[in-house]
TrEMBL record:
Species the sequence originates in: Tunturiibacter lichenicola
GO molecular function: nucleotide binding; oxidoreductase activity
Keyword Oxidoreductase belongs to the record: yes
Any one Pfam family match given in the protein's UniProt record, by short name: GFO_IDH_MocA
Keywords for the protein's UniProt record, in alphabetical order: Oxidoreductase
Protein name per Swiss-Prot or TrEMBL: Dehydrogenase
Signal peptide annotation: none
């Protein structure tokens, strides 16, 4: 007997949902979009009609309590993630929450504790863990293709001033500037491909006339387990670019554009400057794979690649990065207080 698809509802429907999630759901085998809520209900009604979304919920509570919803996918602004997650868990719903998980490590711990106490599935939408480019790098690094990793770097630049997500420059709604918005993707990507965690962070960052209290450009130097030194660079004032690169004692692996779903990604492996392997992979199904993986995990048919605990570790790294910038000193994740 064919199983019915797991029913997702998007809480905080906006530009990201329209651009990334709506195209992903029709390609899913185990997931379907059953409803949505957004703060502007008139806009929600128009969206549901345009995109043929079955349920247009009038309130967050109505969405979270609906018998027609199995999973609440939270895509609201960062400052709302905690309350939205706790509300969904209270109503017995599994939760997939956008990154960054919260506004602080303390909030992320509270969210994880609530999910654990309820026994409900809780994940963070680090969608790039479902990019075939990152999966290939992870598998080949684990197989020893470049030897023992020593240095790693990830970069993500984008022009935030042109973004349709106007709230990302509002310090009352966004965790930070590019550190929280895309730096978290870089941190998570390095943790994923290396299988190691962040120990300490030292940050340089600067504001500009458009960024208000948030940073506009940042560079993070990170110490990771496994004796790895890593660098994350982010800019909200440059054309789109992403990069992931890992140097081992027997080669270097470089993926220009690695954190994208919009075009194929070429990964190049070099030893002593000579190309020894080159592979091109398409990440176009990354969001679909993420949704179906969460649905499978909900049915106890596999594990979801980005757990709430992953989101918590990333929050600790983000908090340490911001604290380092503000204090001008390196911050250790093991000793820094949750805030």
């Amino acid at each position: 007997m064919t199983q019915q698809p797991v029913r997702f509802a998007i809480l905080g429907f906006g530009h990201h949902a329209i651009r990334r999630l709506l195209p992903a759901f029709p390609r899913c085998e185990q997931s379907t979009l059953s409803g949505m809520w957004r703060r502007d209900h008139a806009a929600a009604i128009a969206n549901c009609a345009e995109y043929k979304i079955p349920h247009c919920f009038a309130t967050r509570e109505e969405l979270c309590s609906s018998p027609d919803v199995d999973v609440v996918f939270i895509t609201s602004p960062d400052a709302m993630h905690r309350d939205d997650t706790l509300l969904a868990l209270k109503h017995g719903k599994a939760v997939l929450c956008e990154k960054p998980l919260a506004m602080s490590t303390a909030q992320a711990k509270e969210m994880n504790a609530a999910a654990s106490a309820s026994g409900l599935l809780f994940g963070v939408a680090q969608n790039f863990r479902y990019n075939r480019s990152l999966e290939w790098m992870r598998d080949q690094i684990a197989a020893g293709l470049i030897g023992t990793p020593q240095l790693a770097r990830a970069e993500y630049c984008y022009p935030a001033t042109n973004s349709a997500r106007k709230w990302i420059i509002d310090a009352t709604l966004a965790y930070g500037g590019p550190i929280g918005d895309v730096g978290v993707h870089c941190i998570d990507a390095l943790r994923f491909v290396l299988g190691n965690d962040v120990i300490s962070v030292d940050t340089l960052a600067r504001k500009d006339a458009s960024s208000g209290n948030l940073e506009a450009i940042a560079s993070l130097q990170m110490e990771m387990t496994g004796d790895i030194f890593a660098t994350v660079t982010t800019s909200a004032r440059a054309p789109y670019r992403s990069l992931v690169e890992v140097n081992g004692n027997n080669g270097v692996m470089t993926a220009e554009g690695c954190l994208t779903v919009d075009r194929p990604v070429e990964i190049v492996v070099r030893r002593a400057g000579e190309v020894v392997e080159r592979v091109t992979l398409d990440n176009g199904d990354g969001y679909t794979r993420m949704l179906d993986s969460f649905a499978a995990a909900l049915r106890s048919d596999g594990d979801f690649a980005a757990t709430g605990e992953d989101g918590l570790h990333n929050m600790r790294a983000l908090d340490a990065a911001i604290a380092s910038w503000r204090s001008g000193s390196r911050k250790n994740l093991r000793t820094s207080a949750d805030s």
